[in-house]
Write a structure and sequence with these properties.
single chain; 724 residues; Rossmann fold; 3-stranded parallel beta sheet; 24 helices; 29% helix; globular; disordered C terminus
């Protein structure tokens, strides 16, 4: 793995003389109180400003402050005019634009494209306080406010839209958000290294247009720089055309429909002449760039879209990734390789910056639901090597696990205990995107740097992966032993296929860190959908359940597993959902709420959804096709299978069972899935108006409640395992 400059190794900017702000200012009055005449950087965000390391604007703002820059926050501005973007004056260096911890479209719409009425990142949970496609709208307003100020976009929304991407809400392929936002730079992934370097280089007088050598950034350029070797992505992984008359292999003129190879070289401009090579010597890799099919090509051909998605995911390891370039009209979107992960020392420093750990006083007593969920929880690591195709953690945070030190985590617990109002002695979570990848990594740095596998745990746990949970077990024990700490719960998702590699960890978890229920995510039980999700088989679930039940019983505790499932995921058939419904009934589970697959930008499963092809393997015209549950009717049916016990779903399920030749499952007995009769007043409710009665596990009046909901799909999660 390559090394990077120490995140805190820069000489501080001169404005460090102003010291640390109690809260980063949101008004000119606060700036005046701090003695500021201007801000060096203004962060515009779609979330309410909470000065807590679970919120992106706080991390970026406090990190830049630690480097001596004056940072202001414009949170959830009224986007109807440019005036709110002038509230703090003109920034000296740049505007940093983010939609917030969640993608604005996912934040506002359900998987069935219905508008949500609430927003967990807004005071009072009020919905509608941010625009659709917030990054684009905020960037345009910031440009209207101050046309000559550089605009840098980042966060989850920009990160997952850095190249041409399928947009579920418009059902079309959209171009890179960098172009639609008219931004100068796009920062993707965890952006600490990039944002610090950008600030220092701009402060030193460098033009934003000259910053083109920074990992984890995307920008536009007109032509290939001198000395670079360009590799056609189809030479690495040859796709086949969806429509045979079209030749998808050729590098076309400006992404158009004319085959550039057919033009005489003498008549072509220098920009149009492209020399491709099939193999590049290792010594030349640093100066190699892979050309993806142009935006106009992937719009016309879903197979090429799947091919481009496959190449992007193959080039995701910071240890071996090459730059990517994709033509959009008459210019290129250039993606430099992913950023180098933070070291443990750097992670500690980032999470121990002087956060107030509460919302800005501007909000008064208004409750911000997302803050309430995470105020007593702690991030101990970043990244995920699970590679689940419906999830975007890898595309954003990467698959290299970045862990904090044990000492740093324990210090943060003590800070919460001593300073956060309302603390009762219970830490609500120690985790990250997953609960149990802390300190796990490849046994060989050399192998890790060369690896291109999308997952370290599928189809089985890689033999090169260190699965020793001892450091995490020790952290749990020391955390709960701190004075004033009554309980340490684990709310992040437990990767149970990893957990069974360490029975001692399962024992520690079950006997000390579960409050009666533990959420885990089988997602499906059929091999068809599981193979498209890259999730382990149900046998792994049973092995984990056996350990969990045994250790719970040893501790004298009655505890239950709460499984997550996804409806309508690519690769799922009606037969798969029927099998799952029968499994749920057999095991006595009743789903309170269910979630259908949401095709988020850039996820591998989204490429499946759009193309009907499987980009986990080489994509060709004749390669594996994937069953796609598309359309509201089939998505409602698959959700209905998960809620087989809801009488409102019975008419639809009876019709489907008869169509499938499984009318034998309609009847009054325990062996039947649904009854032949219909209770009065049921079966006519519209989608989204299902009754939410008490949900109990089968087995008599003494059974415990068994509520579960399916995994939130297609999104990265914050340190508590929640969408962001």
């Amino acid at each position: 793995m390559q090394t990077a400059r120490d995140l805190f190794g820069y000489r501080k900017h001169w404005a460090s003389r102003f010291g640390v702000a109690p809260f980063l200012p949101m008004s000119r009055a606060e700036m005046d109180a701090l003695g500021w005449d201007s801000c060096d950087v203004i962060v515009v965000t779609g979330d309410a400003y909470v000065d807590h390391p679970s919120f992106g604007m706080a991390i970026v703002g406090r990190l830049l402050e630690a480097h001596g820059f004056r940072v202001g926050i414009i949170a959830q501005p009224d986007w109807q005019s440019a005036d709110p973007f002038k509230a703090l004056g003109k920034p000296n260096l740049f505007f940093g634009i983010t939609a917030g911890n969640m993608d604005s479209m996912v934040n506002r719409y359900t998987s069935d494209r219905r508008m949500r009425s609430d927003d967990a990142y807004t005071p009072g949970g009020e919905g509608g306080r941010r625009p659709d496609r917030s990054v684009i709208v905020y960037s345009q307003r910031a440009r209207e406010a101050y046309a000559d100020v550089p605009i840098v976009i980042g966060g989850i929304e920009a990160s997952l839209r850095r190249i041409a991407h399928f947009d579920y809400w418009s059902e079309k392929v959209r171009r890179s958000v960098l172009l639609d936002a008219k931004a100068d730079l796009l920062v993707y992934g965890n952006g600490e290294r990039q944002i610090v370097d950008i600030a220092h280089r701009l402060a030193a007088g460098e033009r934003v247009g000259d910053i083109d050598d920074m990992r984890g950034t995307a920008f536009t350029r007109r032509a290939l720089p001198a000395g670079w070797i360009e590799i056609d992505s189809t030479h690495l992984d040859t796709p086949g055309p969806l429509n045979p008359p079209l030749d998808p292999y050729a590098m076309e003129d400006n992404g158009g429909t004319k085959n550039a190879a057919a033009e005489p070289a003498a008549e072509a401009s220098a920009e149009q002449v492209v020399k491709f090579v099939r193999r590049v010597k290792n010594v030349d890799r640093e100066r190699s760039v892979i050309r993806l099919p142009a935006f106009e090509q992937v719009v016309d051909d879903p197979v090429l879209y799947a091919h481009a998605s496959r190449i992007l995911h193959l080039e995701a390891n910071p240890g071996n990734a090459r730059a990517l370039v994709q033509r959009h009209g008459n210019q290129d979107i250039w993606l430099n390789p992913p950023p180098i992960p933070l070291t443990t020392k750097e992670m500690d420093q980032v999470y121990e910056l002087p956060y107030q750990r509460r919302p800005h006083p501007f909000y008064g007593t208004a409750e911000i639901p997302a803050y309430k969920m995470i105020r007593f929880s702690i991030s101990i690591q970043r990244g995920c090597f699970g590679g689940c195709t419906f999830c975007s953690i890898t595309e954003h945070e990467g698959r290299i696990i970045q862990s904090r030190s044990e000492t740093s985590v324990l210090r943060e617990i003590e800070t919460i205990r001593d300073t956060v109002p309302g603390f009762t002695g219970v830490i609500s979570d120690l985790g990250g995107p997953t609960a149990n990848m802390y300190r796990l990594a490849c046994k060989s740095r050399e192998i890790e740097s060369a690896c291109r596998r999308p997952s370290c745990v599928y189809p089985g746990v890689c033999p090169n992966l260190n699965t020793d949970h001892t450091p995490l077990i020790q952290l749990y024990r020391k955390a709960r032993a701190l004075p004033g700490i009554k309980k340490v719960l684990i709310a992040s998702g437990v990767r149970y296929d990893l957990a069974i590699e360490s029975p001692e960890y399962v024992k520690e978890l079950a006997q000390h860190h579960v409050g009666g229920y533990l959420k885990i995510a089988p997602e499906a039980i059929g091999e068809g959908p599981l193979s498209k999700m890259m999730k382990p088989g149900v046998g792994t679930y049973y092995r984990f359940k056996e350990l969990f039940d045994r250790y719970s019983k040893e501790a004298g505790k009655e505890q239950y597993l709460i499984p997550y499932f996804i409806a309508a995921h690519p690769g799922t058939t009606d037969e798969d959902m029927l099998e799952l419904a029968l499994w749920l009934k057999k095991n006595g589970f009743r789903a309170d709420q269910v979630q259908a697959f949401l095709p988020s930008p850039m996820a591998t499963a989204t490429a499946m959804y759009h193309s009907g092809k499987n980009p986990l393997r080489r994509v060709t015209r004749d390669s594996e096709s994937v069953a796609i549950p598309r359309g509201l009717k089939i998505r409602r049916l698959h959700k209905a299978f998960l809620r087989y016990h809801d009488a409102n779903n019975w008419p639809m399920l009876r019709e489907t069972l008869r169509r499938m030749g499984r009318a034998d499952l309609i009847g009054p007995g325990k062996q039947h899935l649904i009854p032949p009769w219909q209770p009065a007043g049921t079966g006519t409710l519209a989608e989204g108006e299902r009754a939410r009665g008490d949900v109990r596990k089968s087995g008599g009046a003494s059974a415990r409640p068994q509520k579960f909901r399916t995994q939130h799909t297609g999104l990265p999660v914050n340190g508590r395992g929640r969408p962001r």
